[in-house]
């Protein structure tokens, strides 16, 4: 159980896995700073979480903007709040053949999925290492382990998150700070709607994990100071198979799974 003064900062906190993680922190009496784009959704989420008897601050920022994480950091500092747990969760994807997708949307996704993670991790890790305590949860993806045709940029960003985190963890392993990677598979969130991916076979016809279960796996791994958790038994199996088979074979399998039910691979 957390001390009353402990704070967790969570990005992407108004929906999906981020929102479920926020609930778990609140239940353990962490005060919260929630970061997301939509101030109305932030307000609704904050009201729900305040019922656990914790303080909830909200910061509405568009993390597509490179300056946004720095602005969040400065606002938190101005409040005199120390962040004990950082959760990098905000992320988006774009479905479709790479030659047909919108490069500007993809550059936004790279900023959100990589730029914001790197910036928040650096700013808060420096503080945590200095005081020799703190926890960071990086929400990556099973996609980090396998190539993702029709989601080439998204899988690439998640491969970056996992590789980057593993390197930084090694650098700071004697610092008293723990950094945990959560790799979910297909989860029942708004991600696929935002990515225009609901017509992909794996989404339209496959099973989706409950975001509350995924969040629980990540939260428990974070508290235990574990290095990495792949959420869900079948996803664990897929990660192992993905690491055993040649990349071109895995890519071909993933291409079949991600193929659109209507047969049109172009971005809509």
TrEMBL record:
EC number per UniProt: 1.-.-.-
Top EC group: oxidoreductase
Pfam families noted in UniProt: adh_short
InterPro entries (UniProt xref): NAD(P)-bd_dom_sf, SDR_fam
Gene Ontology molecular function terms on file: oxidoreductase activity
Highest taxon above the source species: Bacteria
UniProtKB keywords: Oxidoreductase
Family: Belongs to the short-chain dehydrogenases/reductases (SDR) family.
Database matches in PANTHER family: DEHYDROGENASE/REDUCTASE SDR FAMILY MEMBER 7B (PTHR44196), SHORT-CHAIN DEHYDROGENASE-RELATED (PTHR44196:SF2)
Listed name of the protein: SDR family NAD(P)-dependent oxidoreductase
């Amino acid at each position: 159980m957390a001390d009353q003064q402990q704070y967790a900062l969570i990005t992407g906190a108004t929906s999906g896995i981020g929102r479920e993680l926020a609930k778990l922190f609140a239940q353990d009496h962490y005060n919260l700073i929630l970061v997301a784009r939509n101030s109305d959704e932030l307000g609704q989420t904050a009201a729900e979480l305040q019922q656990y008897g914790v303080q909830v601050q909200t910061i509405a920022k568009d993390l597509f903007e490179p300056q946004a994480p720095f602005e969040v950091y400065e606002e938190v500092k101005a409040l005199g709040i120390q962040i004990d747990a950082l959760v990098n969760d905000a992320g988006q994807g774009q479905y479709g053949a790479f030659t047909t997708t919108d490069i500007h949307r993809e550059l936004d996704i790279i900023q959100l999925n990589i730029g914001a993670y790197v910036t928040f991790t650096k700013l808060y890790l420096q503080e945590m290492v200095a005081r020799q305590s703190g926890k960071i949860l990086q929400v990556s993806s099973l996609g980090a382990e396998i190539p993702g045709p029709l989601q080439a940029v998204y899988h690439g960003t998640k491969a970056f998150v996992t590789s980057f985190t593993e390197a930084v963890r090694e650098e700071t392993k004697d610092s008293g700070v723990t950094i945990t990677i959560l790799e979910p598979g297909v989860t029942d969130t708004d991600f696929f709607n935002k990515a225009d991916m609901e017509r992909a076979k794996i989404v339209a016809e496959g099973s989706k994990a409950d975001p509350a279960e995924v969040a629980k796996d990540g939260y428990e791994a974070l508290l235990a100071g574990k290095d990495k958790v792949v959420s869900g038994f079948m996803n664990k199996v897929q990660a192992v198979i993905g690491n055993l088979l040649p990349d071109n074979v895995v890519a071909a399998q993933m291409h079949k799974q991600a193929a659109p039910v209507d047969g049109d691979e172009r971005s809509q």
